[in-house]
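So, can you check these tokens?
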Amino acid sequence: MRTRLVALPLYLTVCLGSVCTLRAQFPEPSKEELQMTSDPKAPGAAAVILYREERTDDMLHYHAIVERIKVLSEKGKEAATIHVPYDRSWTKVSDIQGRTVHADGSVYPLTTKPSDLTDVKSKYFQRNDMVFTLPNVEVGSIIEYKLQIRYDDEWISSPEWTIQQPYFVHKAHYFFQPSRNWWHGVMWASHVKPGTKVVTDSQGRYTYDVEDVPAVPDEDWMPPLNSLNLRVQFYYAEYHDGEEYWREQGKAWAKETEKFANADKAIKGAVGELLSAGDTEEQKAKKLYDAVMKLENTDFTRQKSSEERKKEKIKEIKKAEDVWVQKSGGSDELALLYVAMARAAGLQAVPMQVVNRDRAIFDPDYLRLSQLDDYIAVLTLNGKELYLDPGQKMCPFGLLHWKHTYASGLRVGGKGATMATTPGNTYTQNSVQRVADLTVGPDGSGSGTMRIVMNGQEALNWRQTAIRDDEDEVKKRFNEKMRDIVPDGMQADFDHFLALDDYNSNLVAVLKVSGQLGSATGKRFFLPGMFFESHAKHPFVASDHREIPIDVHYPERLVDDVTYHLPEGFAVESAPQGATIPWASSAQLRVVSKTDKDSVEIARSLAYNFTLLEEKDYNQLRDFYQKVATADQQQLVLTRAAQAAK
């Protein structure tokens, strides 16, 4: 029998589940379930899952799902629309049943035909999305459905049980009957609720029962969910354990990577033309980096189709030499080209492939090379390792895109590959300086100019945005960002960028600003003391408790400087107080105010040098940002000079 190992794609928009057994009829809801209007186990929840079940049987080749959900609010009615993505090339969705039960016990069965929508279609596969909506759902309803995903006899699946769902789960049951035709047996990795465990019976079947599972966390600045969610993953084993898997698969990965990054004769010739005899190692590294960065990165433009490449007689890229000859390639190909060129120049360089931290955290228990995303280059200069990102268009030499910082994966080393983790950025690598020069009118209006000076991650973001989008779209998006920065009543209009194409220089955005700046109360005018923070949403202030780690993506220094030119006849009654607010070695806010005869200059500097924090540090983090929020609420108060003199 032809056998393939696949992970069944069951990423549902809502949670999956069932009643106690998969029967032809749904069980009758209890009186308590019908009358439920809120859930003390999930205060404020839009909906809760009363019960869910998944059964995978690789002997009979089906995956069955049943779920019962109690709707507790208007927002909870969104759970009535079910999305079931599946691969149409080898699976089909069948036996869909569903109904809605109102709080008074009236029943409305699912009678409409589900929509089978094509999501992605290629020469080799077609991913569809089966969609149906349970009828007549109202607040207080119980919605329930069941279905099967069947697959052909020559296929087997290795299910992944996603224990945490968007809603609180009262009770869930999972079952897996593996195929007995897979001679290596089954491996599994679990991250389950404390006090529970996966049970294996004498026939090799797996079950898991759990109650009172919290909903998937939804907080600001969270690390990727795969590092938090409760789950169980099964594998039809080709190896005895995970250590053997990564050792053997790492060897294969390293072999293919090294084959591509081989510094052959053509690469050595190109490097010889780019470098000078007297170049230091650092000069060589930077010249080669600039040469690679000048090539077309098709991940930021458009990769030509196989038909286009054939018509234009362009060879398929199989090695670094092909990238250099064609002057274009994808991000991974360009990163490996840099490694090849660095080696041709006599530099010590190795490739590394990481899991992007904006998507997931590398999980050694997840036995799939497919979790790896992007290649970077690790260069040794003067005895120190330097992590480079030549596959990220417009990324400066020596900087990693934040999604590649604190990112783990495989690195070529020894006779194969080793697991490794990249370092993080420092706040000195990422800074934004916001400067405003404003003339205040006697009616409280304001007009002037703004300059936003960026380096590091913010500059990289806008340079890459400018590659992907046209000029009008970039201007629109920048103005939208400014609305969240300038005070209410003021409008900032983006004019142009300076040094947009020079990734080795600061990126400068030039804007014009105008509008109603101040408000009058009696004899006084009130102006925002912190122009750029007048309606800022300070993180971590609103929530007094945190149960999950914090990931702010990257450290940064934010420097503001605003100069108010006062109208004639006005004087300063009070200005923001100077302050220095430290948080150990992690962060600091500094405010300085300077008043002259006809102007006021207010400078604000906020620097934080952390990226990842544990939940135990949350109280100190929140305390710091509460102090920042208080300092940012200060105002500049003006009065007419004659009145102020009395």
